[in-house]
Design goal:
- The protein is globular, with a radius of gyration of 16 Å.
- The protein is built from six helices and eight strands, in the order βααβββαβαββααβ.
- Strands 1-2-3-4-5-7-6-8 form an eight-stranded mixed beta sheet, sandwiched between helices.
- The protein has one domain: Gcn5-related N-acetyltransferase (GNAT) (Aminopeptidase, 3-Layer(aba) Sandwich), CATH 3.40.630.30.
- The chain is of the alpha+beta class.
Length: 192
């Protein structure tokens, strides 16, 4: 299997491709972090979210990326590689392509906190190590996003908590704004 990967934007996805994206989305993310996929599709139509598919040079679906946008902020809301393609650096290659796609914008993401006890603590640590290895750095705060403690990682840009919360407000209105809370400042952010 070749690890060569290219990205393409799914603006008007065929039903089969969209079904693969939706299936991986529901398999890869915890229920408490999922939005209804219909909401993602609606926000994609409005232009505030993008749905991207990764495919290899054989045009096999290899993964998904869903981003949310507000002003110069781009949040990688969901990123997953299909289980059968999680070898050979595919995830890192796709992630680099995402960073290139959003160069010049403030690119960041959320991960489940590695600072709290959890059944999937090792998975959380591996996920964070992946993003740190690929150039992301800790922001100096954690958040409670809809009841889930999250760490924020960014691609070397500055990001204030209020800007992060404003992105959610722009996407989902005032009701979301109140469900995003500053959890704790971090003692020391990791270095790039």
């Amino acid at each position: 299997m070749s690890a060569e990967v290219k990205m393409r934007l799914i603006e008007t996805p065929c039903a089969a491709c969209l079904a693969q994206i939706e299936k991986l989305y529901y398999e890869a993310f915890p229920v408490e972090e999922q939005k209804p996929f219909s909401v993602i599709l609606e926000k994609n139509r409005e232009g505030s979210m993008e749905i991207l598919a990764a495919e290899n040079n054989h045009k096999d679906f290899t993964g998904l990326a869903i981003t949310a946008r507000h002003r110069d902020l781009v949040m990688l809301d969901y990123f997953a590689i299909s289980p059968c393609h999680r070898q050979g650096g595919v995830g890192s290659k796709v992630f680099r392509m995402l960073k290139e796609r959003y160069a010049g914008q403030r690119f960041f993401l959320e991960i489940e906190s590695t600072l709290v006890k959890a059944e999937n603590a090792e998975q959380r640590k591996r996920r964070k190590a992946f993003y740190l290895k690929n150039g992301m750095v800790d922001m100096p705060f954690t958040v409670d996003a809809f009841g889930v403690e999250m760490e924020i990682l960014a691609d070397g840009c500055s990001l204030e908590f209020e800007e992060y919360r404003d992105l959610y407000h722009s996407l989902f209105g005032a009701s979301a704004h109140g469900r995003i809370k500053l959890k704790t400042p971090l003692p020391q952010a990791s270095k790039k």
